[in-house]
Design a protein that fits this description.
Layout: H1 11-16, H2 25-34, E1 37-41, H3 48-59, E2 83-87, H4 96-113, H5 124-139, E3 142-147, H6 151-154, H7 160-179, E4 184-191, H8 197-200, E5 208-209, H9 224-229, H10 240-247, H11 260-268, H12 277-280, H13 285-293, E6 305-307, H14 308-311, H15 321-327, E7 332-339, E8 342-348, H16 352-367, H17 373-386, H18 389-401, H19 417-429, E9 434-441, E10 444-452, E11 455-464, H20 474-482, E12 494-503, E13 508-517, H21 519-524
Parallel strand pairs: 1-4, 1-5, 2-3, 3-4, 11-12
Antiparallel strand pairs: 6-8, 7-8, 9-10, 10-11, 12-13
Helix pairs in contact: 4-5, 5-7, 16-19, 17-18
């Protein structure tokens, strides 16, 4: 059984060290044969660095490393090219002087490897241009591979002034590529975010963005076939339905892929231990900062719609949370809708890992609760599975009572229905079951729909000025009843309609009214409405590998 390449980004080490490897060389051949300048955006730890290193060894003509791979008999190994590799993946840069020092070290390292001299002029733009010209003169046209091109900016995303300074310095550095076209054979730039060409790659009009090109949808990540072949022996005994639910779901307009880091850690930790491996290695603190700086309705983020203008752009001066969530891997494309005015992308959370972890982050942001979250989660799960809505009222009351008063200070969160809906949604979503916000029916929208172990809960949320039980949830429940929301879930299990009313004065529940529906009787008394059964589990996918 081959070893797992956890954290290994060096193609040569993988090929010579008996590590499992997913052959991406056919994609590399297509890129090299059909174009010259490419850009790719993918989340962190998705295999971008390994792919760049594969390109490096390919252009340097290391034929022995490609024995048995798709490209071996299709590449002209008699032709080699000098490669300049630039990576900002290591360390954190908190000022432009530190960035300049790193760039100078990178350029000197490349010069030494190519047998050239890199003069320290203090101007990194001039040094880069000089290196390209010298490399071309001595070895032929140059291949430029840039990894984590945007990391110095993202490292400072919560400090706009420093982030702008990083952007401007990098823009100056990257401008050399446009001016040195005569010396260049091939360029491949990767990163997480998608800064517009105007903002960072001014003049590089021939830079082809393959991020959403269906031909390159699986350039990074693992396909299900990869799991069934390369990792078949490693995944013996694994519940493949659960594996897919936890770690698959990333869609770049082609076949959906698994998070490769998650798969490797899942195998390494035993194939019965499902955890948020990828999430735990990152620091999504920038999300909280963005949430604080602007008003976002949390449930809406899980089913957002965006066009290519939103997804394809990112800038320090105009940070769009949805675009950043998509680019960083916390949202994915559920499906593409063709319209007369262009494609509309329906976004969704990719898998259970993100659903659980992101909503846990939202809980912390909305309530500042930390240690008590698990206790509330367990209590919610127990009463929802039992159908004990009366006990649910007590849990919600304690939950909102435990939110610190300071959370409401200097704002009017208590006045907004969206705040209470967001807290409830985040807690229910963090349980890991199917949840729908603003669930559309043929008569309107349900605030929150939760499907949990044979039961369906329909929640409607209202806010009142009153402080006591007089302000009951009658109005909310009446809305569910009058619009016949429950018809949609005929045959889906026991259906509970729950009206929740919150008080602006007490910042807590003022009343709960609920009923368990007898759908047979209910439907006999009303016209047949929309029937839609959306089963969460994939019945066609075998549970074993």
């Amino acid at each position: 059984m081959k070893k797992l390449p956890i954290g290994i980004q060096t193609f040569e080490k993988i090929r010579e060290g008996n590590y499992a490897y997913i052959d991406k060389t056919e994609v590399a051949l297509k890129l090299a044969s059909e174009g010259d300048y490419y850009f790719l955006s993918r989340p962190r730890r998705f295999g971008k660095s390994l792919f760049l290193d594969t390109l490096k060894d390919l252009f340097e003509g290391k034929k022995n490393l490609f024995e048995g791979l798709a490209i071996h008999d299709q590449w002209d190994w008699s032709v080699t090219s000098p490669v300049i590799r630039v990576s900002f993946g290591a360390g954190v840069h908190d000022n432009v002087d530190a960035l300049d020092t790193t760039i100078q070290q990178i350029l000197k390292g490349n010069a030494k490897r190519l047998g050239l001299t890199c003069h320290d002029t203090g101007d990194v733009k001039y040094q880069f241009a000089q290196l390209l010209e010298a490399a071309c003169e001595k070895h032929g046209k140059v291949v430029i591979l840039v990894d984590e091109y945007d990391k110095p900016i993202l490292d400072n995303i919560s400090d706009e002034e420093t982030a702008r300074a990083m952007r401007d310095r990098l823009k100056n550095f990257y401008s050399v590529i446009k001016d040195s076209d005569a010396f260049i054979k091939f360029v491949f730039i990767t990163g997480v975010s998608k800064f517009s060409k105007v903002n960072l790659f001014s003049g590089l009009n021939n830079l082809e963005d393959i991020t959403l090109n269906p031909h390159y949808a699986t350039i990074c990540g693992y396909t299900h076939l990869d799991l069934q072949t390369t990792f078949k022996a490693h995944l013996q005994g694994a519940d493949m339905v659960e594996v897919k639910d936890w770690y698959n779901g990333y869609n770049y307009l082609g076949e959906k892929v698994y998070n490769p880091f998650d798969i490797l850690l899942f195998i390494s930790n035993g194939v019965d231990r499902f955890n948020s491996y990828w999430w735990s290695t990152g620091n999504p603190g920038f999300l909280v900062e963005l949430l604080k700086s602007k008003t976002y309705f949390i449930p809406e983020l899980s089913h957002y719609q965006a066009d290519s203008v939103v997804l394809d752009s990112f800038d320090v001066d105009h940070i769009d949370l949805v675009a950043l969530l998509w680019q960083t891997g916390y949202l994915t494309i559920d499906h593409e809708e063709k319209t007369p005015f262009g494609s509309v992308y329906h976004l969704a959370l990719p898998n259970r890992e993100i659903r659980l972890s992101l909503n846990r982050l939202f809980i912390n942001y909305l309530t500042t609760q930390t240690g008590e979250v698990l206790s509330y989660q367990k209590s919610l799960y127990e009463v929802l599975v039992k159908g004990d809505v009366d006990a649910l009222e007590g849990i919600f009351t304690r939950l909102f009572a435990s939110i610190p008063y300071q959370t409401f200070t200097n704002n009017k969160l208590q006045d907004y229905e969206g705040y209470y809906t967001s807290v409830i949604y985040a807690y229910l979503a963090s349980l890991g079951f199917e949840i729908i916000s603003e669930d559309c029916t043929n008569r309107g929208r349900i605030d929150i729909t939760l499907k949990i172990e044979g039961k369906v809960y329909l929640f409607e949320v209202k806010v009142t000025d009153k402080a006591t039980q007089e302000a009951s949830g009658d109005k909310a429940l009446a809305q569910i009843q009058s619009r016949q929301y429950a018809q949609k879930y005929q045959g889906a299990g026991e259906v509970y309609c729950v009206g929740l009313t919150f008080s602006k004065q007490t910042r807590n529940l003022a009343g709960v009214v609920w009923e368990k529906l007898d759908l047979v009787a209910f439907l006999q008394e009303s016209p047949l409405g929309e029937v839609e059964l959306d089963m969460a589990r994939d019945k066609d996918l075998p549970r074993d590998i």
